[in-house]
Amino acid sequence: MFGDFRADPDSSPLPTPSGRFELFSETVAGFGYDDCPGHPAWFAPDEWLGNDDRTGRHPLHLISNQPATRLHGQLDDGSTSQASKIDGREPLTMHPEDAASRGLINGDLALVRNDRGACVVGIRISDEVMPRVVQLATGAWFDPYEHPELGQIDLHGNPNTVTRDVGTSSLAQGPSSSSTLVEVEPLTVDVPPVRAHDGAATVGSHGS
Fold first, then answer.
1. Could you tell me which residues come within 8 angstroms of residue 131 by beta carbon, excluding any fewer than 6 positions away?
2. What sign has the CA pseudo-torsion 80, 83, 84, 85?
3. What is the percent of the chain where pLDDT is above 70?
4. CB 121 within 8 Å of CB 81
5. Buried-most residue among 7, 21, 52, 114 (CB within 10 A)?
6. What domains can be seen in the chain, in order of their start residue?
7. Is the pLDDT of residue 162 over 90?
8. How confident is the model at residue 207 (pLDDT cuts 50, 70, 90)?
9. From the centroid of its chain, how far is CA 114?
10. 3-state class (DSSP) for residue 94
């Protein structure tokens, strides 16, 4: 791939401002962004388990990966995706220690919440995740509901309800998923079934 460049880097430069491999980018550094110094660097995220100021109220780190049963949200109403649901809700994977400390067992419905929002999930207990980490795939169709006791919630388990709507950096502006702190608690009130996959109401040609 880099044969011509290795043989004669002056005649076959790389498609970078310097024509070389760049471990430091003058271009990026020139933007003057505090969070983009022009070289690889690690910055502590606002929400992670190392931030003691935030873990008191929301002690679990949420990982929101791509789903195995659909493509993003596509075919969420299909049989493969539906077979993975728990009582119609997206499954959330939780370590046995965290589940036990919250009185949760496999198949329970629970509420994932933080200051941004809340969603209903089905509990899947597994030691495939670390303690204090929970996993909830993206793509469950958003089903907002105004609950008389809980307020505005999502009935289906969409992690966007609790994820920060802030870009990854001043330069990249990518989605900042998988850097979210939440609490998960037993669902102690009744909620309606998921309605996101119901067909839309239709009106006939004469309004009937």
1. 95, 97, 98
2. positive
3. 98
4. no
5. 114
6. 15-41 (no CATH), 52-186 (2.40.40.20)
7. yes
8. low
9. 13
10. strand
